[in-house]
Amino acid sequence: MAAAKTRTSTFSRNLSTASPSHGPGLKCGPNGTVFLSSGIPDLDKILGGGFPLGSLVMVMEDAEAPHHMLLLRNFMAQGLVLGQHLLYSSPARDPRGFLGTLPSPAASKDDKPRERDPDQEKGLRIAWQYKKYFGENQLDGQRGSLSLVYSLFILLAGPLCEHGADGKHEYSNEFDLRKPLERHFINGPRIDCVSIQDCPDLSTLRDRCATFLSQFPRNDGSISCAGRIAIQSFCAPQCAYSNMEWDMLSFIRSLKSMVRSSNSVAIITFPPSLLSPSFCKRWQHMADTLLSVKAIQDEDKELAQLLTGYQDMVGFLNVHKVARINTQVPVILEATTFSIKLQKRRYLVLECLNQAPVDGSSGTSYGTSGGCSSSSKTGNLDF
């Protein structure tokens, strides 16, 4: 008698396939997306988890202040702390010297400037309230009750936590901008530095990127390690190819294609003022995630009256585009413009803009740290 065949269809769920495992510093997202941390916890939350693997991130620089370097430093330092490979390209003659300016992760939880996540505390309170529904004699007395309460806490608040058992971040770290990264992180074979100052064309940089990305081929299995590419001031005037706009656009298109088929993320910063308007638009269109930074003018009295906490701001971050890898539905941002603050002059913090009270009263807040109100009136400033 023939054995009965199991009926299957295209709508049957394959329960035998185990979920792929990922290395440190990677986080699973919706639709099979795997995120890489930007090195800034606030930016990860804003973007819906971080930078998706296989994406190209472009940052428009401000000609008056190097705020884009804050993003680059945290992005590079996060990868080195997690043991990920890094390719750094710069118009400086000695790009490896820039590695000495990378920040070090906070030593302990006591050094962190932020208080406990309010969502996490809410989950703990809700879980603890369930204790009253279990008698002292149930589940082997009080021990069983507390165990169940603890289990509820893990279910409710666990996904909100990004800490391991030792209290350190597993996915994204807080970095102390005043403390340099330890030498053993920046002295190793995982780092490749390229100077593009004297390059007559972009073939050398393209070949280095192709060799670097070949270490992280995209497949459906587990991802043991990921790569990061950071290219600073791509169209800087000291580069010999700075006037070859078509060549630079061709390089960006080629890099995007190579990154898309690898387990890596590439960041390119560029000063848009050095490009013609048409090519600047083309560059922005090539980006999966598009950001821009802008410095705050000294003693801007109009902004000081409009925004609360203006004295602590050093600039603005604008999110123009969020990556749509593995989906056609974009992340809906509650605000597009965020203030850049250096809390305690050491930690990089992004906050929604708050409207200052007009009549001297308490006023209405149009945004809070780590979350944004959809009614924000100052969250869509255009630069």
UniProtKB/TrEMBL annotation:
Top-level taxon: Eukaryota
The UniProt record lists the keyword Nucleus: yes
Extent of Polar residues compositional bias: 1-20
GO BP annotation list: tRNA wobble uridine modification
Biased composition (Basic and acidic residues): 108-121
CDD domains per UniProt: Elp4 (cd19494)
Pfam family, one: PAXNEB
Assigned keywords, A-Z: Cytoplasm, Nucleus, tRNA processing
Residue segments, region Disordered: 1-27, 98-121, 361-383
Pathway: tRNA modification; 5-methoxycarbonylmethyl-2-thiouridine-tRNA biosynthesis
Protein's cellular compartments: Cytoplasm; Nucleus
GO cellular component terms given for this protein: cytoplasm; elongator holoenzyme complex; transcription elongation factor complex
Similarity field: Belongs to the ELP4 family.
Protein name: Elongator complex protein 4
